[in-house]
């Protein structure tokens, strides 16, 4: 009955709320207000008030208006989310099968960003007023303020070299008055021609190709160049072109620890720092960047995957550096791959996207082979340095003594490297001291009470830690099972244990552990990366963190403690990921000077991945891996989806997973494996079962899953069904 009352329709709107519901809700618009799609609002939702955005599509006019709640606030100062961003949110939701509100939630992350930045309170001299007593400290303050301008209190105290209480005292005596100062001015713009470099001939070809891609709409390019070949220099030319065309640029990096070096390089080339976006920036900075991106004041953002959901007003280029990296995949909430979604965002808005890697994903290489992406190859290091010489150490015959982890041959090479004043990197992708602790009297193994994983000893902290849920406990004196004293033994090495061996062997060397879990957080990591870069450490022991993109000019030797780690996984990409990781980490050696060496400690030197690494034949590895994927119908030749069913009762969860699998609509094109207990069978007290779906490339797997899950059976309370389209991790 309300449908045909046009006056009424104008007073209601569809609002997408950032919660897990299937679509927008209908709200009443306050009298006199009008809200275009994209307007950011606040609405009541149950007992709460939440942010939301007015969405497209007709509101539901069939609802009794008396039952409708009203929009409680309209953010007039915030730029509405534009059409392209709204379509992107819808697209990501449809692809990942996540509720669209949960995707919108990644856009509307900061409420502070929706209002203007509050003005800062400053102080200014009151003409003719003097303090009762002119102490030296007070005099310094007044001298500092000679210019008559307003200062922030902290800035003034700092400049005058006094404590804040001196300034407060002068305010109390009305010698100074408080004034409102405008918030930070917009950041300075990057300068396109600030400092250009002379590109080598293959770099020039790539840079010109990237610049030309701006006239082709949604073109995707892959810069496929060995470590140190100048990929960053090359895509800087594409950034310059985007800036010339008055477009904003987003650069995605897989790891916060990489941003520091990037910021400095960007500044050297463009004269200013780009804006940063990742989990470690302050709320205030976050809000400023969000606003700046929306207003267009911010021209270049360097960020983690979540930066993809920033409300750019003039985005015209996305670069995904280290595009093969697993960190671009988010596994929880909305499971999306930022690399793939970057390509989608470029496609929807018709601008170029550039992927860069020394070890591209098989998916991207195939897309190049098929002509979907354009590949630019940089086969040589920019410095002219040759690629490192690699050698496998067969741990079955050439390993170290029991209780030691560094083989004699690697040790010898480390001695030479140290003597010659160069750096060594020892790589082991295992945090902590030892991955397993057991009691030598009764055989008790320390396991997490909430997860099916061993507790990892962290000797610096003196604790046993679960790497899945963060549970930690002090290392006990006695075995909790048999009470034996001093009977616990660490099994296997982590980086801390390797460091212990290094310190024992090289007492004069400056050693440094680079691992994400050490106290001090990202700040400390940044500092330490810089120390390594500047040659302030001789031997670095690091986890996969150090494998990514860094340029350490003095590093000559890389030793991989356990090259087999990661090959045994039930992961269809295990070979690819191991190849990438080991090629990246050994690629740190001799980047600038040449003469680099890499040693890979392995129990299976004949494994095809190790053979491919030794022979330095990347193309042969890709060709073989692509053939194997094609033959097995694995991505990108076939499609995969994972479904994880989890719950706190093991039997009920298992039963539900089975019932769900039985209810799968029969379809000859879809193969369903499982349910099987997940490799990580329990996490945070929840039991986990997995289904794996395989389908041909062109098959609408999302449509199939949507239909299946709608039909049921439906998850009962406490049970969770998480779909992961194109899973990257299989735990
Ligand atoms: P990649 O990103 O491929 O690992 P980078 O862009 O970091 O390589 O380049 C490696 C090093 O070589 C950097 O120090 C970079 O400044 C330098 N470099 C690259 N290309 C040139 C060039 N054409 N002229 C001078 N230095 C270059
Ligand atoms: Zn745990």
What does this structure look like?
This protein is α/β, with parallel strands linked by helices and 731 residues long. It has 21 helices and 30 strands. The protein has a seven-stranded parallel beta sheet, with helices on both faces. A hairpin with a 2-residue loop joins strand 3 and strand 4 (48-54). Helix 5 packs across helix 6 (164-172) and helix 17 runs parallel beside helix 18. It is globular. The chain starts with 5 loop residues before the first helix and ends in a 6-residue tail after the last strand. The structure holds adenosine-5'-diphosphate (ADP) and zinc ion. Adenosine-5'-diphosphate (ADP) is lined by residues 197-200, 203, 225, 227-233, 382-383, 551.
Quantity of strands, as a count: 30
Strand order of the largest sheet: 11-12-10-13-14-9-15
Count of runs of 4 or more consecutive helical residues? 21
- Average pLDDT for all residues: 92
Give the fraction of residues assigned to helices: 25-40%
Beta percentage is 15-25%
N/C terminus separation: 53 Å
Bound molecules: adenosine-5'-diphosphate, zinc ion
Outline type: globular
Classification by helices and strands: alpha/beta
Low-confidence blocks of residues: none
Q: Report Rg.
A: 29 Å
Most strands sheet: 7 strands, parallel
């Amino acid at each position: 009955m309300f449908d045909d009352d046009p006056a009424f329709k104008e007073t209601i709107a569809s609002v997408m709320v950032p919660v897990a519901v299937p679509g927008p809700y209908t709200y009443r618009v306050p009298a006199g207000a009008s809200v275009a799609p994209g307007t950011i609002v606040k609405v009541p939702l149950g007992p709460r008030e939440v942010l939301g955005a007015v969405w497209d599509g007709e509101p539901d006019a069939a609802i009794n208006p008396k039952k409708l709640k009203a929009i409680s606030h309209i953010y007039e100062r915030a730029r509405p989310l534009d059409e392209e961003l709204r379509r992107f949110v819808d697209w990501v939701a449809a692809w990942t099968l996540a509720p669209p509100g949960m995707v919108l939630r990644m856009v509307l992350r900061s409420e502070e960003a929706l209002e203007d930045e509050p003005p800062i309170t400053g102080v200014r001299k009151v003409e003719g007023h003097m303090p009762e007593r002119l102490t030296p400290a007070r005099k310094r303050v007044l001298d500092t303020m000679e210019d008559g301008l307003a200062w922030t209190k902290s800035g003034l105290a700092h400049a005058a070299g006094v404590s804040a209480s001196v300034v407060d005292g002068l305010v109390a005596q009305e010698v100074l008055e408080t004034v409102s100062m405008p918030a930070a001015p917009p950041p300075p713009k990057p300068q396109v021609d600030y400092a250009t470099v002379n590109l080598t001939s293959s770099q020039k070809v790539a840079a010109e190709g990237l610049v030309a891609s701006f006239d082709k709409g949604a073109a995707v390019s892959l810069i496929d160049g060995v470590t140190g070949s100048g990929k960053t220099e090359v895509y800087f030319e594409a950034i310059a072109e985007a800036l010339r065309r008055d477009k904003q640029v987003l650069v995605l990096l897989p790891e916060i620890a990489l941003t520091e070096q990037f910021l400095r390089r960007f500044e050297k080339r463009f004269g200013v720092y780009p804006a940063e976006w990742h989990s470690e920036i302050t709320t205030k900075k976050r809000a400023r960047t969000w606003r700046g991106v929306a207003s267009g004041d911010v021209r270049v953002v360097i960020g983690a995957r979540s930066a993809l959901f920033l409300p750019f007003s003039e985005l015209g280029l996305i670069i995904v550096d280290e595009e093969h990296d697993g960190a671009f995949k988010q596994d929880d909430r909305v499971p999306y791959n930022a690399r793939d979604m970057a390509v989608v965002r470029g496609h929807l808005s018709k601008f170029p996207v550039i992927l860069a890697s020394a070890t591209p994903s098989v998916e991207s290489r195939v897309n190049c082979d098929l002509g979907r992406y354009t590949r630019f190859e940089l086969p040589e290091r920019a410095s002219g340095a040759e690629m490192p010489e690699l050698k496998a150490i067969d741990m079955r015959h050439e390993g170290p003594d029991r209780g030691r982890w560094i083989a004699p041959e690697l040790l010898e090479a480390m001695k030479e490297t140290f003597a010659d004043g160069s750096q060594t990197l020892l790589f082991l992708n295992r945090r902590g001291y030892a991955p397993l602790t057991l009691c030598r009297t009764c055989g008790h193994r320390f396991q997490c009470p909430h997860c099916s994983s061993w507790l990892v000893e962290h000797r610096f902290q003196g604790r046993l830690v679960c790497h899945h849920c963060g549970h930690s406990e002090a290392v006990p004196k006695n075995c909790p099972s048999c009470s034996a004293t001093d009977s616990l033994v660490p099994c296997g090495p982590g980086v801390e244990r390797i460091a212990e061996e290094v310190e024992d062997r090289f007492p004069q060397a400056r050693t440094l552990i680079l691992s994400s879990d050490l106290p001090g957080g990202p700040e400390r990591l940044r500092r330490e990366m810089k120390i390594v870069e500047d040659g302030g450490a001789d031997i670095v022991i690091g986890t996969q963190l150090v494998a990514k993109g860094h340029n350490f000019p003095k590093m000559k030797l890389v030793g991989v403690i356990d090259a087999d780690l990661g090959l045994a996984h039930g992961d269809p990409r295990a070979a690819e990921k191991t190849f990438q990781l080991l090629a990246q980490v050994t690629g740190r050696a001799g980047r600038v000077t040449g003469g680099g060496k890499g040693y890979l400690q392995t129990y299976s030197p004949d494994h095809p991945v190790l053979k491919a690494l030794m022979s330095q034949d990347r193309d042969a590895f890709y060709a073989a891996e692509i053939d194997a994927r094609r033959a097995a119908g694995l991505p990108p030749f076939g499609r995969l989806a994972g479904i994880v069913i989890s719950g706190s009762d093991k039997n009920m969860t298992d039963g539900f997973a089975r019932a769900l699998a039985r209810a799968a609509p029969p379809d000859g094109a879809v193969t369903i494996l499982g349910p099987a207990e997940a490799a990580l069978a329990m996490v945070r007290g929840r039991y986990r079962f997995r289904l794996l779906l395989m389908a041909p490339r062109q098959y609408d797997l999302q449509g199939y899953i949507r239909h299946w899950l709608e039909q049921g059976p439906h998850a009962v309370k406490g049970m969770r069904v998480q779909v992961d389209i194109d899973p990257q991790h299989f735990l």
